[in-house]
Structures are given as structure tokens and as C-alpha cells.
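re the bet — no i am not wrong, look at it urself. input seq straight from the record:
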Amino acid sequence: MSRSDPLSYTMEPLKDIRLLDFSRVLAGPYCSMILGDLGAEVIKIERPGIGDETRGWGPPFIEGESAYFICANRNKKSITLNLGSERGKEIALELVKRSDVLLENFTPGTMEKFGLGYGKLREFNPRLIYCSISGFGPDGLYKDKPGYDRDAFDNESPVRRVTVKRFYMSKYQLTQGQWQAVMTKNPAYFQNEKLPSESAMKEECE
């Protein structure tokens, strides 16, 4: 990409960035999809034989592929790696050396078990930006717990720590902030356990 082409640079500002996406389901894949929209090269790492579990979530399916999976994984390349094997780790490390960003949303500690934790990878690529997404962040009583759905409403969940090269965030920090804004302005929504529509939520959060 040439900066002499301002339109190209504006439309794809991340064109020179390579991101390794070890994440699956929604928190993580949605993030990397947006970065891909902005021009980043996204390489999705999936399990052999299974892939991202959302490939099988349906119906609906489109030409044998889950619509759920398609909606969160456009603009990506995909390979399968057995991270439990030595060869799989070797390939992963080679990709890390050539990448700018790594994204993962495994249960905390999983990447370390594979030998792919930040402490290890920064030896191979000191400039790597390493993003871990978990239900409750890296510290606190629930840091080792997996997180889904209603964890967004737990008072313990919005945890974030930022360091120079690695950062963590709770899966639902943004979502929870939106819901808190809705609840603050319209507590009646939840007194009757009636959830607002997407349009109502958007209107209240603007």
C-alpha cells in the first residue's frame, strides 16, 4: 500500500497489519472481523476436524456453512493447527514471528498450557500485541472461570488491565456499559424483566 494513495489508505488503514486469530464463537471473531474490514490480514487458527464450533451451529446453513459462523468471520484466511502437537506449535511460532497482533479467547491459562502464552511469545516477537479476552479478566476471584451471556450482568465482570504490549478485557465490557446506560435511564425495563428491543437499546445509549 502506498501512502500516496490517500483513498486506499483511508479505506484500509490496517492493510499492513497481520493478525493471528486463535479465538472462536463470538467474542474475538467479531473483533478480528472488524479489523479485517479495516484491511488487516486475519489468519484464523482452528482445530483440525472441528474448526470453530460455530461452524456447526444452525440452522440456518448456507451451502453447508452455519450462517452464525459466516456472520462473524468474513475477510479471514483460515488454517487448522493441532496446538497440542510439537509440529502445530512450531507452525504457530513461525506465524507469530511474522505477525503484528495475536487474539485469543480461550479459558484463562489455556495458551500457556500450549506454550503460547505472552511471556513465551514475546521472546520470539517483542513487538507483538497480545490480546486476551476472558469472562472476568486476568485478576480477581473469578479470573480462572469461563464466561458467557449473563456474566455481563455480574458486578465482578468489567475488568481491564493495560500494559505496554499485552492487554486484557472482559468479554462484555462494552455490552455491559450499554445495558447499564439503559437500566439507569429506564429501570422499568428490568422491574418487569422485559428486555428492550435492539432499536430501543440503541436509542437509549445514544
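see?? Strands lie at 18-21, 41-46, 61-62, 65-66, 77-80, 101-104, 129-134, 160-162, 166-170. told u. also The radius of gyration is 19 Å. so pay up
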